[in-house]
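From the shared-data thread, chain only:
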Amino acid sequence: MTQVEPPLTARHRPGSQRTAPVDADRWPDVAAVPRASWPVRAVTASVLERALRRLPLRVRFAEGATLGLGGPLIEVHDAKAFFDRIGTCGLIGFGESYMAGEWDAPDPVGALTVLAAHAADLIPAPLQRLRGLWAQRQPPAQRNTPHGSRSNISRHYDLSNDLFALFLDETLSYSSAVFRGFPADWSLLAAAQHRKIDRLLDLAGVREGSRVLEIGTGWGELALRAAARGAHVTSLTLSTEQRALALNRVCEAGLADRVSIELCDYREARGTYDAIVSVEMIEAVGAEFWPVYFRILDERLAPGGRVALQAITMPHERMLASRDTHTWIQKYIFPGGLIPSSQAIEQAVREHTGLDVAARDGFGAHYAETLRLWRERFTDRADEVAALGFDETFRRLWTFYLAYSEAGFRSGYLDVQHYLFTKEKSAR
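Structure, as tokens:
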């Protein structure tokens, strides 16, 4: 049975790196530590300690013990809370423990990269097979129905345009850039985002007079760049905040006659188009609706047309293992989200559409660099984030999210792909 200790608003843990208590009203599951039963805590500590001993890490506990083979440092300030959270909530608890200040890492990306590289074998195989018994299930309210999708998208993308503007470059592109070389420099990020957009538009064959459907507007940079080529763009979004700013940008660019931005679910799209472009939107669709998503692409694409898709991917076996469980990323960052595998994408296209998979190109190292630049910018502008009203727990949440994501790409656990799907011309 799980009990709950007093929230952090009532006490401050020794050794915690926090400078302020957690707001229990805003962050109830971070403020209150779930207290695991002794057997659960003992098993959790045993499993984790055995795993950590063989990793190229140094995990140092406040009591003085150190585990690992050497490498990036993780400092655990409150071992009891650390093990209780992981024992009762798994990886959600691991993330919440960081948000609470119960552990820290001088190089969080380095530490998380080691963990991501060993994600498949951190937990012993017998316990992995019992995952369905202990892992939290995805909340039914986060299903990506038309209503659920609007709520899920709003929780992330409607946070604040000003927040995103603090760490994104002037293109306001919130997806992987494509660089000419590494390491990348902040001053080169906008050009690298344009390089990515141009690659997608070229892949889709967008040119003067093209009818383009964009699924997932973001803040409008791709629509603007396509319209500057002379294309006519219909862009769909579920974010009211993004749409408002994107419309302003379109008007300021003098392209309102070529760009329409609609507050519209992809399932409500109408018309046919010569080209369809969708950048890192499939991750918000959910496995249940992948067949629907790809059928819509097929239905909206004119014969002879092309679809350019940018998608984050993960290993197929890991996707299958986690697709029905609730994760820290889903709880706090992307509710309802699920990263597909390349195999899942290609299977859905093959089984539910008449489209052909014409090309696929992975460039995960570029996403790691993109995330590094965002993370460093976010950290450097922490005071400005705070001035917008986002508290310390939020800032730790987003620091962990950006570092966690970067580590996924640096370890090779995650990749990002450019796909080209084509549709045969109708026989005359």
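The CA atoms of residues 134 and 227 lie 50 Å apart.
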